[in-house]
UniProtKB/TrEMBL annotation:
An annotated Gene Ontology molecular function: methyltransferase activity
Natural source organism: Autumnicola patrickiae
CDD domains membership: SpoU-like
Protein name: RNA methyltransferase
Presence of keyword Cytoplasm: no
Keywords attached to this entry: Methyltransferase, Transferase
Stretches of the chain forming a coiled coil according to its record: none
tRNA/rRNA methyltransferase SpoU type domain: residues covered: 27-170
Presence of keyword Acetylation: no
Source domain of life: Bacteria
Annotated GO biological process: methylation
Length: 181
């Protein structure tokens, strides 16, 4: 059996307007002090793929428009809602006051493995991703409602920030989508 690859024109993708009007997956992504502009762009592209509600760019995380973000985002900065927040801890506290559960993606005591984590049903949750070297700041981990760890079995025990975001968003998207049925 031959499986013909689909052309872009056959993929039934949303226009920018359709994306903005579409019902969103109740997930907020928080990027704290991400240095790589290519990683930032990749996160935007992944957020677009799963109709993520919003991205917060914090600290030194660069903001669109920037050619290196655009190179990997491929236009997703035009579809995914985003906002800059200088202080990630203040943002976390604000979101928690707004009844949004905040989870740090980190290797820490008391972490729940991603495969065992169940997102809060019917509620928006936020996931915090830290920078490429030091991860999520301890003060943010401590302020979070919980910590989620991506199970890893190899020798490196770390993933690229864009890869981590893809893994976590896919997992949460599947769990949230199956809960709606």
């Amino acid at each position: 059996m031959e499986n013909r690859k689909l052309k872009n024109s056959e993929l039934d993708r949303k226009s920018v307007e359709e994306f903005k009007e579409a019902s969103k997956t109740p997930i907020i992504v928080i990027l704290d002090n991400i240095r790589s502009l290519n990683n930032i762009g990749s996160v935007f592209r992944t957020a677009d793929a799963f109709l993520i509600q919003k991205i917060y760019l914090c600290g030194i995380t660069a903001q669109p428009p920037h050619k290196d973000i655009q190179k990997t985002a491929l236009g997703a900065t035009e579809t995914v809602a985003w906002e800059y927040a200088e202080d990630v801890l203040k943002l976390v506290e604000k979101l928690k006051k707004d009844k949004i559960k905040v989870f740090s993606i980190e290797q820490a005591e008391g972490a729940v493995m991603l495969n065992n984590f169940q997102p809060p049903g019917g509620e928006t949750c936020a996931v915090v991703f830290g920078n490429e070297v030091k991860g999520v700041q301890q003060k943010v981990v401590s302020a979070s409602d919980g910590i989620i760890e991506i199970p890893q079995l190899g020798s490196k025990h770390s993933l690229n920030i864009a890869v981590s975001t893809g893994v976590v968003l896919w997992d949460l998207f599947v769990k949230i989508s199956s809960n709606k049925k």
